[in-house]
Amino acid sequence: MNKLDKRLHIAFLINDITALGGTERMCTMISNELFAAGFDVTIISHHESKTTPFFFLNESVKREQLFDASKSSLHHLTLPFAISRMISQLKPDLIISCDTQMCLYSSIPLLRKNHVAWEHFNSGISTRFGSRWFGRRLASLLCKKIIVLTATDKRHWINTLQTNPDKVVVIPNPLPIERPKNWNHSERKNIVLAVGRMTAQKGFDLLIRAWAQIERESKKNWTLRIVGPTGSAKPELKKLIREYQLEQSVELVAESTHIENEYQQAAMYVLSSRYEGFGLTLIEAMGQGLPVIAFNCPMGPSEIIADKYGKLLPEHNIEQLAECINSFLLSPQLRDEYGKLAYTRSEEYTPINIINKWTSMIHQL
Fold it and tell me: What confidence category does residue 3 fall into, taking pLDDT thresholds of 50, 70 and 90?
C-alpha cells in the first residue's frame, strides 16, 4: 500500500469504555463514525469492568485495556508507563485523551506525539482535590489541540487557563439519536420530561419545586417524568415529592437503554441544571421535535437554544420556570411552534455535520 493511501490510526484513551456515562457514549459514537469515515480506531481503557460496552461499538473498532479490572490506586503510579508502552506497540497517528483528568498521566509520556485533549465537562468546574485542574494545565501546555464542546468553554480555556487560542477547537457533541422525518404532537402523552443522573448538578430539586408551584388544575392529567441513573440526590428528590404531596404526578424512573422512547412519548422537555458541560439531552429532545425549556446555566444551553429555538430562563429561577412550564401545559399551539423550532435547530448537531469537524481537525494535525 502506498504510504499516502494508509488509513490513519486514531487511539482514544479513556477510563472504562464499558461504563455507562456521557463520555463513554460520545467516545463510542465518534469512534464508530471515524471508522466509517475511513480511519482505523482503537479505544484504550485504563480497565474494562464489563465484557461489552454499554453503548453500541462497531466490532471493527479495536479495544485494549492497560490493566485488568481493578480499583487499585497503585495503578495510577504506573499509568504513564503503561500508556507509553501501549502507544509504542500500537503506533497510532493521533492519540486523544477522552478526559482532561487523564492528561495528568498521558501528557508527559505523549509529549512528542500528536496528542489531543477532549474536554467533556465545564472547564470552570474542578474536582475536589484539583486533579482535573492540573490535568487541564498540562493539556494546555503540552497537547497539540484541546477539543471543547462550546464557544463559552473555549473562552474559558483561553482567558483562565491561558491556552493558546490556536490550540482550542470547538466541536459540539453529535446527536446520538436518529431524527424522525415527521412526528405528530397529538400522538404524544401528557408528559413533561427531564433526563439525567440524579445529582445536585441536574437541578431536579428545582424542577420539582417549580412543578409544585403550578396550579393543580393546570397540571391535571399531566406527569413530570425524571429519567436517569440513580445518584446522590435521589433521596432528597423523593423527600421533596412526599413533602409537596406530588406522588401522583411525579415519577422517578431508572435509566433506559432506549431513551428515544422516552423522548417520543413526551410532550415537552425541561433542563433544570445548575451547570452543564454541553447539554446533550437538550439536543436529543430537540431532535425528536420536543419543545424545550432550559435554565441559562453555564455552559451549553444558551448556545444550543440561542434564545430562539426554545425558552431560556434565568438560572435557578423557580418562579419563572413554573410560569413557563404552565404556559406550555395550557397551549398545544405553543408546544407545536417551539417543537418545530427545536427540530430545525437539531439539524446542526447531526453526526454527519459533527464528524466533518472531527476529520478536518485530524487532517490539520
Answer: very low
| Cβ proximity of 282 and 269 under 8 Å | yes
Question: In this structure, how many other beta carbons lie within 10 angstroms of the beta carbon of residue 35?
Answer: 18
The strand order across the sheet containing 62-65 reads 62-65, 40-45, 9-14, 94-97, 115-118, 145-148, 168-170
DSSP 3-state of 348: helix
DSSP 51: S
Residue 51 near residue 44, CB atoms below 8 Å? no
Beta strands in 92-176 (DSSP E): 94-97, 115-118, 145-148, 168-170
Residues in the chain: 365
Residue 117 CA to residue 157 CA, distance in Å, equals 12
Say if residue 198 is preceded by a cis peptide, omega within 30 of 0.
no
Closest to 357 in 3D by CA, of 152, 148, 107, 194? 148
Short-list 255, 90, 124, 285, CA closest to 201: 124
Name the packing angle between helices 280-287 and 22-36 (round to 10°).
60
Contact 125, 116 (CB under 8 A): no
- Please report, in angstroms and rounded to a whole number, the separation of the first and last CA atoms in the chain: 22
Of 350, 300, 358, give the one whose Cα is nearest residue 147: 358
| Choice between 231 and 124, residue whose per-residue pLDDT is larger | 231
Closest CA to 175 of 338, 345, 50: 345
Which residues, at least 6 apart from 109, have a Cβ–Cβ distance to it below 8 Å? 80, 81, 83, 84, 87
- Report the range of poorest mean pLDDT among 184-188, 190-194, 301-305: 184-188
Average pLDDT score, the chain:
93
Handedness of CA 305, 309, 314, 318 (dihedral sign): negative
